[in-house]
Automatic annotation (TrEMBL):
Origin species: Pedobacter boryungensis
Signal sequence annotation: 1-22
Lineage, opening ranks: Bacteria, Pseudomonadati, Bacteroidota, Sphingobacteriia, Sphingobacteriales
Pfam family, any one: Plug
Residue ranges annotated for the TonB-dependent receptor plug domain, each copy included: 716-792
Swiss-Prot/TrEMBL keywords: Receptor, Signal
InterPro entries in UniProt: Plug_dom, Plug_dom_sf
Highest taxon in the source lineage: Bacteria
Protein name: TonB-dependent receptor plug domain-containing protein
SUPFAM superfamilies hit by this protein: Porins
Length: 897
């Protein structure tokens, strides 16, 4: 299906007026080989997450399925085996990160939205470590609104009025504070702070009026630097409790940014060219404008207007010696004058007409001085996979090409025109949307109407080109009465993997371009591509052998690795032991290589597992050091999806919040959901715990003997300190023995990890110890079972002492490490009412979620679930992929009465 290099020859000769053959001795072949080598050496991945809903509420669960594909082949990726998914708040802080195993590019997970989170515009970001080499621009990064009604006391509604005086932007923000029922918090003290681009520009205090409102004046005297920010407002309630609210400032003005983009890259004297226009307002959304093009003698050349989301185009034939400006009329009645890019006196124009549903019509125009100066090359490629390349003779000033769209896979095609000396001189993007690489999904047994709590029993039939296929699918079913879809703005597997994942910047309403395939929509999509950024393949870098630096390798499995040194020199053939007893005892060992490096790979572990890494070189372990390989966290970049940010999240989601609150209240009654209890400030005086951070199973400080860091200040070693201080304890060779137990040495528990009885107390640096607890009586050792038969010594190290990365070094040759393991995915609860009747009301907003519905060899898959107690139109969204990279998306609806 994915052809490597299609040379349009005999079968297409009727479509071409020139030779389409490239010979092996053609120098241009070397450039194509460089591209091939580049894409092999630096493959790229794309991630898409299918979410169960478009927005959420505090108390909800975010359910998602991940699809990771190879950018070049579109096949499910086998490059990476680990995916990172993050929930990021409005402060660009990662509130939750989970690590998921990938199997053939597939995984799934969830986030629980606890009431420790507030309402706001959150982001879900997903990437592999390998993707970090290309930068975060191509991560999956989606903005979602999360409201809060169920666990919220204060609701805000903000309106802004804008003005400009002497190049100073002024905003008057009015914020209203109300309770859950809309009653204003009158006469309440509010302190606030205003930030623009993370810079504090104002702060103050105000008292709400009878409507619960305050006014905050914002002055931006450097509008070119500070465009957006936030207001942090703290309101003091009647009971003296304070509630903090963060309100986004999307912009400080009503300015509109307008840019012009000549097709192919440049205007050229005497050659007619399409010029695209893009008009974006200060909130990051497209805003339609109209205008006139004037020459330098003030003659009107043409009129234009944008047709959709501030985008449009017109044809301009620049004349030699002329310059052009645009007089633009904005929606508010004001005007702007913008100079168009200056035309070149000599050059090329690459023009593409992509409005036909079956073929692309391509024209290449050149100025007369460039005629008969050698053959040009036209290359069409998709993410580095070349699908056609052909010579263009310069004997004529106009060259026409017609290319069937069936030759390409669905997605973005990059068309590049090369000069006779093999340099890129014009470039253009076009979008292909074929049906042969899509999966067709049909649903059997779907009735138009069901009852409340009615059983829905469906069979999915999946085919590609009328042949059954096996694929992995995700299914989300919601009630549109509670979860109203925004059809044009919703992202899905097609909009993401075929379009937005290959573009830089924000794409407004991506699904608009997939809802219809008519001429109007194809024109609107073409205008988007004429004005949107593209960075996947940079020909100049390939020509100059400027390849990206590889900092992060593809992760195939979890691993713990590092290096052993002694006196600063690598230790070869040193024994390294990895062990943990977090979830049962685990131990494994290995030897370091000649460079002192070691690795424990192909190990699987979940979150909250703590390990000890111990290196042994000889009897004298002094100066032995372990340095673990720590991958730095990915920096959180500024949200690029500014157009999706909502100032008044709760107000926008109010119908959904009202519905979800009923569900959360019912869950709370059943004990399935709990609110965090916030207590008023109470000063409690109690005896200080001598071992506050201890992992002692009896409880911190409950031991036969306790020593603190202060007690150990003059101690040379732990064994010398304990010798003679604890009755019934003898010290021999760094180990403690209880005179009341027969045989073995006492077990050492270091920061919650049982090091066993072979571990020496003198392996621990005494200055790093916060507390030591000796358990020797039966009352204190019984809880440790057979592991405490000889007694237990609990050692707790100082928090942060010796910390490097996210591991801690406590003594020569020993480190403890708590790496992030795989997230333990929860299962979506779907009741079976016929088997287990339940009289309690069912208010679920997500009716059903299945992240891994697999079709069998006949293309069949079964689906069975029960409706809720809510009537309305239920929406079934099915997405998926097969092993050949064919994509699926289908939406069905039915009524529940």
């Amino acid at each position: 299906m994915k052809q490597k290099l299609i040379i349009l020859a005999i079968t297409l000769l009727s479509l071409f007026s020139f030779s389409a053959f490239i010979t092996d001795d053609d120098p241009f072949t070397d450039l194509l080989k460089k591209l091939e080598e580049f894409t092999k050496k630096f493959p790229q991945e794309k991630v898409y997450l299918h979410l169960d809903k478009p927005y959420y509420a505090i108390g909800d669960d975010i359910w998602f399925k991940a699809y990771v594909v190879d950018s070049k082949t579109a096949l499910p990726s086998t490059l990476s085996s680990i995916l990172y998914v993050e929930l990021i708040n409005e402060k660009d802080s990662v509130k939750r990160q989970i690590k998921l195993p990938l199997q053939s590019g597939i995984s799934w997970g969830d986030f629980k939205l606890t009431d420790s989170l507030g309402e706001g515009n959150y982001r879900i970001r997903a990437y592999t470590q390998w993707m970090r080499n290309a930068g975060p621009e191509f991560f999956f990064d989606k903005t979602i609104k999360i409201g809060n009604s169920w666990a919220n006391k204060v609701f805000t509604k903000t309106s802004n009025q804008y003005s400009t005086e002497n190049n100073t932007e002024k905003v008057n923000s009015t914020i209203q504070f109300t309770d859950h029922d809309g009653k204003p918090y009158a006469n309440s003290l509010v302190s606030y702070e205003v930030q623009l681009n993370s810079r504090n520009i104002a702060k103050g205090k105000a008292t709400t009026n009878e409507n619960g409102e305050i006014n905050i004046p914002i002055v931006n005297n450097q509008p070119n630097l500070y465009k957006s920010g936030k207001i942090t407002a703290t309101i003091t309630m009647a009971d003296k409790q304070t509630v903090v609210k963060t309100i986004p400032i999307k912009s400080t003005s009503t300015d509109v940014d307008i840019q012009f983009f000549p097709e192919g890259g440049n205007l050229v004297d005497g050659l007619p060219s399409k010029v695209a226009i893009k008009s974006i307002n200060a909130n990051g959304l497209g805003e339609n404008v109209s205008g006139r093009i004037l020459d330098n003698e003030n003659n009107e050349i043409l009129k234009f207007e944008t047709a959709y989301l501030g985008m449009g185009s017109f044809i301009l034939n620049p004349l030699a010696g002329k310059t052009y400006t645009a007089k633009i009329k904005l929606a508010n009645g004001s005007e702007k004058t913008i100079a168009l890019p200056k035309a070149q006196t000599s050059g090329y124009v690459l023009s593409v007409n992509n409005t036909d549903s079956v073929k692309m019509s391509i024209k290449v125009m050149l100025t007369t001085d460039l005629m008969n100066k050698g053959d040009l090359r036209l290359v069409g490629q998709h993410n580095g996979d070349v699908y056609f390349v052909t010579k263009l003779s310069t004997e004529k000033q106009l060259i026409s090409v017609s290319v069937p769209k069936l030759e390409f896979p669905s997605g973005l095609v990059q068309l590049t025109l090369f000069s006779a000396d093999n340099l890129p001189i014009a470039e253009r993007l076009a979008f292909i949307n074929n049906s042969h690489d899509k999966i067709d999904i049909n649903v059997e047994n779907l009735k138009p109407t069901y009852s409340k709590r009615g059983n829905v029993d469906l069979t999915l039939t999946t085919t590609n080109n009328a042949k059954p296929i096996q694929g992995s699918f995700s299914v989300a079913i919601t009630n549109t009465a509670a979860v109203a879809p925004d059809l044009e703005n919703e992202s899905n597997i097609l909009t993401n993997l075929l379009l937005t994942s290959d573009l830089t910047g924000y794409v407004e309403k991506p699904n608009h371009y997939f809802l219809k395939n008519d001429l109007k929509t194809r024109n609107e999509l073409d205008n988007l591509l004429l004005t949107q950024g593209w960075r996947k393949i940079n020909w100049k870098n390939i020509i100059n052998n400027q390849f990206p630096a590889i900092t992060y390798q593809p992760e195939k499995h979890l691993k713990i690795s590092g290096k052993i040194t002694k006196g600063g020199k690598p230790v070869a053939k040193g024994k390294v032991v990895l062990f943990s007893n977090t979830n049962g005892f685990f131990v494994i060992d290995t030897l370091s290589d000649t460079n002192g490096r070691f690795s424990f790979d192909q190990i699987d572990f979940t979150e909250n597992i703590k390990f000890v890494v111990q290196a042994r070189t000889d009897k004298n372990n002094k100066n032995t050091q372990i340095d673990l390989d720590i991958v730095p966290d990915q920096v959180v970049t500024i949200n690029k999806n500014t157009g999706d940010v909502e100032v008044n999240v709760n107000e926008t989601l109010m119908p959904y919040l009202a519905q979800s609150t009923k569900y959360f209240d019912e869950q709370t009654k059943r004990g399935f959901l709990n609110k965090t209890i916030t207590l008023k400030t109470v000063n409690i005086v109690e005896k200080k715990n001598p071992a506050p951070n201890s992992s002692n199973l009896n409880g911190a400080g409950r031991a036969d003997f306790v020593a603190t860091a202060k007690d150990l200040e003059t101690a040379f070693s732990l064994s010398m300190y304990l010798q003679g201080r604890v009755a019934g304890i003898m010290i021999r060779d760094g180990k403690a023995y209880s005179t009341r137990a027969n045989g073995g040495a006492m077990s050492i528990v270091l920061d919650g990890i049982n090091m066993g009885s072979d571990f020496s107390l003198d392996d621990i640096i005494v200055q790093d110890v916060e507390s030591i607890e000796v358990l020797k009586s039966i009352g204190n050792t019984a809880i440790y079972g057979s592991g405490g038969a000889s007694g237990v010594i609990v050692v707790t190290t100082k928090r942060g002492a010796g910390t490097e990365g996210n591991y801690a070094r406590y003594s020569p040759g020993i480190v403890t490490y708590a790496p992030k393991g795989y997230y333990q995915v929860r299962q979506f609860y779907s009741p079976k009412y016929e088997a287990t009747p339940d009289p309690k009301p069912d208010f679920r907003s997500t009716v059903y979620w299945n992240p891994h519905l697999v079709s069998d060899p006949t293309g069949k898959a079964k689906l069975n679930y029960y409706n809720t107690d809510q009537s309305g139109t239920y929406r079934i969204v099915i997405e998926g992929i097969d092993s050949n990279g064919n994509l699926a998306r289908k939406v069905y609806t039915y009524e529940v009465k």
